[in-house]
Design brief:
By secondary structure, the chain is α/β, with parallel strands linked by helices. The strands form two sheets. It has an eight-stranded mixed β-sheet with strand order 3-2-1-4-5-6-9-10, with helices on both faces. The protein has a two-stranded antiparallel sheet with strand order 7-8. It is globular. The termini are far apart. About 45% of the residues are buried.
Length: about 210
């Protein structure tokens, strides 16, 4: 699959390496094409770098890997996203990561769908720390779970299959409104990891009977 990740931070590069190792073609996108190319060269694995619109235009699937507050600007810069699957990994946290800025009646994912109404937005990877991605997607030696929510069933399955191809586990959680539950789970993970000192070698999962 041809994947473009809009962003160059730790989450973006962690996902880029995982996807590239799974034989996907990966491009990092940034407002600054040279920065994207520099970061791509640093992480290696055949990952390319490009300006946002160029990266978005060539992709079968996009990952929005920027802070939620920057999402609107990045989506505008990415250009026409009609028909594209856009994976939202954001969490709408306050500056000190102590609370969500939206919830109950909407979610970051639903707001992003409004910003890109002709795209197929899927919530995923938002409950996984960057350090877990950098450890081959494993927390405490086990594959992390990716919770996947989206209104388009085919797009949801595509993202689930992508996570599995990269060595993670995937659980589909229904429509995009389920992001209203998944974003607080990410907040709890942050509270446990940083606020309560459990570190970042952790990830939420869901136990199922055999």
């Amino acid at each position: 699959m041809n994947i473009s990740i809009l962003g160059t931070g730790n989450m973006a590069t962690g996902l880029a390496v995982l996807f590239a190792k799974a034989s996907h073609t990966v491009t990092l996108g940034s407002r600054d094409a040279e920065k994207a190319k520099t970061v791509a060269n640093t992480v290696g694995n055949g990952i390319a770098g490009a300006e946002l619109a160029d990266a978005a235009g060539k992709a079968d699937l996009l990952v929005l890997a920027v802070p939620f507050d920057a999402a609107a600007e990045v989506i505008r810069a990415a250009g026409d996203l009609t028909g594209k699957t856009v994976v939202d990994i954001t969490n709408p946290m306050t500056a000190d990561y102590s609370a969500l800025t939206i919830g109950h009646t909407t979610s970051a994912a639903e707001e992003i769908q409004k910003l890109a109404p002709t795209a197929k937005v899927v919530k995923a990877f938002n409950t996984v720390f960057a350090s877990v991605l950098q450890a081959d997607g494993k927390a405490a030696g086990r594959p992390a779970t990716v919770f996947v929510a989206g209104d388009d069933a085919d797009a949801r399955k595509t993202v689930s299959d992508l996570a599995i191809s990269a060595g993670l586990e995937a659980i589909e959680t229904g429509g995009l409104a389920s992001a209203r539950y998944l974003e607080p789970v990410a907040g709890l993970n942050i509270a446990l990891g940083y606020g309560l000192g459990h570190g970042t070698d952790i990830a939420p999962t869901w136990q199922r009977a055999a």
